[in-house]
């Protein structure tokens, strides 16, 4: 009777383990992921594009069913990625899989600064279902061009906020104006000189003074 009870318990455990869809955890060292972002920094309400390359570090075969990224502004267990359950991707031992481009929208109210994200992968290995999460990485969100996230500009002490970076050069124009003014002044001076001819003083020959004519005496004859 005791042997029958033991056999029944063992068979019950085997049935439970074989029928249950328990999730095993692929060790962090068994795989790695690389994310290729479309930019180094992003702005609130901006569209982001990225690819994920998932690489196996074991000799066993892996089947990828879902792959994506969880950003810290998302809800719990929410990912932006690909659902491959209808077309699972198989990775051979030490192989890799690169996703198609994934497009996501950054919320308009996301805070400016550094945000964390990690890659999540669901699939099958030799032990059954697995869920693998990569290490946390960071992404930078910068100020937006519009909206309340735009900082007020800080004026430069002693400067002009509206001053052009390359102010126009007026030196050539000033030289032209000065040359024209000089030409006009010379023309006016020449005209005035022509109006006043030189006055030549009469020359008196002091060496040969004029001889006086002797006066005739009037005699009555």
Spell the H/E element sequence.
HEEEEEEEEEEEEH
Structural class: alpha+beta
By CATH, the superfamily of one domain comes out as Immunoglobulins
Low-confidence segments, given as residue ranges, are: 1-22, 146-165, 215-221
CATH-defined fold name of one domain: Immunoglobulin-like
Give a short overview.
This protein has helices spanning 2-19, 171-195; strands at 23-24, 31-37, 41-42, 47-56, 62-71, 80-83, 89-91, 96-98, 102-105, 113-125, 128-133, 137-141. By secondary structure, it is α+β, with helices and mostly antiparallel strands.
Walk me through the structure.
- The protein has 221 residues and is an alpha+beta fold.
- It has a domain at 21-141: Sandwich (Immunoglobulin-like).
- The chain is 19% helix and 31% strand.
- The protein has two helices and twelve strands, in the order αββββββββββββα.
Tags for this entry?
221 residues; alpha+beta; Immunoglobulin-like; 8-stranded mixed beta sheet; 4-stranded antiparallel beta sheet; rod-shaped; disordered C terminus
């Amino acid at each position: 009777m005791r042997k029958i009870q033991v056999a029944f318990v063992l068979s019950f455990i085997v049935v439970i383990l074989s029928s249950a869809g328990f999730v095993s955890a692929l060790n962090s060292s068994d795989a790695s992921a690389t994310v290729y972002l479309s930019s180094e920094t992003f702005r609130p309400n901006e569209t982001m594009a990225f690819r994920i390359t998932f690489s196996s570090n074991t000799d066993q075969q892996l089947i990828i069913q879902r792959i994506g990224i969880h950003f810290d502004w998302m809800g719990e267990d929410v990912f932006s990625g690909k659902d491959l359950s209808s077309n699972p991707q198989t990775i051979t031992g030490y192989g890799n899989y690169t996703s198609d481009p994934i497009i996501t929208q950054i919320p308009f109210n996301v805070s400016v600064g550094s945000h964390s994200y990690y890659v999540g992968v669901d699939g099958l290995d030799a032990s059954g279902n697995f869920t693998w999460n990569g290490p946390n990485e960071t992404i930078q969100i910068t100020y937006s061009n519009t909206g309340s996230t735009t900082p007020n500009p800080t004026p430069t002490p002693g400067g002009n906020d509206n001053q052009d970076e390359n102010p126009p050069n007026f030196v050539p124009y000033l030289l032209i104006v000065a040359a024209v003014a000089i030409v006009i002044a010379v023309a006016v001076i020449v005209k005035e000189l022509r109006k006043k001819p030189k006055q030549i003083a009469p020359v008196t020959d002091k060496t040969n003074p004029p001889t006086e004519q002797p006066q005739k005496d009037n005699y009555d004859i």
